Amino acid sequence: MVNHSRKRLVIGNWKMHGDTVFNSELLAGLRSGIADASNCDVAVCVPFPYLYQVRSLLEGSGVSWGAQDVSRHEKGAYTGEVSAGMLADFGCRWALVGHSERRSYHGESDQLVADKAAAALAAGITPVVCVGETLQEQEAGQTHAVIERQLAPVLALGADSLAKLVIAYEPVWAIGTGKTATPEQAQEVHAAIRRQLNAAGVGQVRVLYGGSVKASNAASLFTMPDIDGALVGGAALVASEFLSIAAAQASE
Ligand code: PGA
């Protein structure tokens, strides 16, 4: 049974891709086809230097935009960091936090990720908190324990904060590998995340799936009751592919 009470959300994570010419073509493509995805909230999270370009090219399109990271600090001597207040200052709506590439290449801890989520919320930006286990952890049967550990400091932010954020479950072994979790595998983890959120007093948080989502597998993932949308990497760089994901119809 598909849960229709949470509006679907599809977010493109451009990662470190793009340039002004490429972005402008991609965004023109999104604008021209976005009407077909009217049952879905659609957003793109882009590299910092292009936020300004993306803001102007998406104006009035219905596609919202965000950053891929945010500082845990409000302001100060933190060279190279970008605060949530700066992002909010010119209208940024979303910030990814705790993407597995940041956890693994930048040593981001579970607590740091929760702090970043709190900083985003304090500035009025919606954090998309990414969690997910590695292949090794999955093979060792630790998936649920890892997700619980990663979520613990986020859950500690309390129900009021939780009600305003988005969770993305992205098994690390499925990111950029072409290996998607089966809808049933993903659903099992999403249901566990949902139970934890319910226990913390929040029912309507959107939980996205990420990891090699493409037009050909989106509908079957969206058919699962606890999968409320997708965080899309590679396929978000091709307008037609990304639009097909956003417009995918869950089969009943
Ligand atoms: P992918 O990336 O869709 O290319 O697997 C997803 C992500 O890392 O957010």
Bound molecule types: 2-phosphoglycolic acid
How far do the termini sit from each other? 7 Å
What is the overall shape? Answer: globular
Strand content: 15-25%
Oligomer: single chain
Could you estimate the helical fraction of the residues in percent?
40-55%
Count the beta strands: 8
Nearest-integer average pLDDT: 95
**Tell me about the biggest sheet?**
8 strands, parallel, barrel
The CATH class assignment is: Alpha Beta
Descriptive notes:
The protein is an alpha/beta fold and 252 residues long. The chain has one domain: TIM Barrel (Alpha-Beta Barrel). It has eleven helices and eight strands. The protein has helices at 20-33, 51-58, 84-89, 100-105, 110-122, 135-139, 143-155, 159-162, 183-199, 215-222, 239-247; strands at residues 8-13, 40-45, 63-67, 94-97, 126-131, 166-169, 206-210, 229-232. An eight-stranded parallel beta barrel has the order 1-2-3-4-5-6-7-8, surrounded by six helices. Helix 10 (215-222) packs parallel to helix 11. Residues 13, 170, 175-176, 210-213, 231-235 line the site of 2-phosphoglycolic acid.
